[in-house]
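Run: sequence + shikimate-3-phosphate -> complex structure.
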Amino acid sequence: MQVTVLPAIIKGTVTANPSKSAMQRAVAAALLAKGTSIIRNPGLSNDCLAALEVAENLGAEIKREDNHFEITSKGVQPLSHEINCGESGLGIRMFTPIAALSAQPITIVGHGSLTTRPMHFFEEVLPQLQVKCTTDNGKLPLHIQGPLQPKDITIDGSLSSQFLTGLLMAYGAAAADVTITVKDLKSKPYIALTLQLMAHFGIKVTETSFEQFRFGKQQAYKPTDYTVEGDWSGAAFLLVAAAVAGKAEVQHLNTASAQSDKAILEALEKAGATILPGVFTINIQRNGLQPFEIDATDCPDLFPPLVALAANCNGTTKIKGVSRLAHKESDRGLTLQEEFGKMGIRIDLEGDIMLVHGGTGIKGATVHSHNDHRIAMACAVAALTADGPVVIENAEAINKSYPEFYDHLQLLGGKITVDVQ
Ligand SMILES: O=C(O)C1=C[C@@H](OP(=O)(O)O)[C@@H](O)[C@H](O)C1
Ligand SMILES: C=C(OP(=O)(O)O)C(=O)O
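>> structure
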């Protein structure tokens, strides 16, 4: 699919899409909880749909109602010898330890970018928990056979927090009197989100400095009613769109959320946008934009919208944390450099630092998403202030996290044409 985005003025109100990070965790917790859980305001992105399918294959019964899902579970009881996590990094890293709670041998597969993302962590860690595990040289497919037996363990958190999320969720169902110790944890707020979600489903973990996670006496997930919060990661693109090309109100965004990507507000403030935060609504307006400095090590998904913002700031913006981008849907540091380069924006990568030279004018161009949803969305936002149309190839990549994105941009005044080809 090819999408053409014309320069436009942004104005209007839109409701943030549901957070896929919250939704995927809730689906996993509902699978682990014996009984019926309700998930309201569910996400329907590809990653969320993949999580629902995995939960079904691991034994949950899922009923879709008007604006909620009813998930009934007897705990992990796989119906299939294979589970497919689609393209979701979180999905595979969270559901693998959960699937390993069962004694059944299971093959775990995925497609697209997921087949190139690193999984060697499991080969190193799961055998310590009595789970047999093989990979194809650290890549998919994974073959596992549990049952996972929690014990005191020390893991490396420097590559991704997602492995820890998976272990925490699985330990929640089976651990008693054990501690997970993690060294050099990155993306810490995602772990805060995991713990918050687990607490909502009745599982208490005592966390110390995001280094130690202590499980006391044996606990059980309790079925519950959960409402998925608005997605700061997707909304970041809309907020930047308003900051560079007009004004907007984005609703259903909780400023007290544990989501890491609410840090977009810090960047927008530093850049000089006018922001009026309510408790669940953000109003944002364009103002003279200045370059800024920010450390995005713990909120790596913000790089693409930050680059779209920085391209509109008069001078060089410095963003730290580029090394976190190498193993996302694409190698995002390089992808941003290449695609924004086509639009006339120079990006230098210096070790862990990205320098975006903004204010030089964004040019209309044909760009490619590299099958990376956040690259497609960043290019669409950059197009709003370009000197001509920006054509985005492989634009359907947005479906991974935010299928409503082009519609939402249009609601805010974006001029978009879609060519399905
Ligand atoms: O737990 C999550 O929901 C996520 C964690 C982050 O990954 P890392 O921990 O690998 O940075 C983030 O990039 C990803 O999009 C979603
Ligand atoms: C990297 C992402 O997700 P995941 O790692 O879950 O595939 C993302 O949403 O940008």
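>> summary
The chain has two domains: 2-17+230-419, 20-217. Residues 24 and 48 are 6 Å apart (CA to CA).
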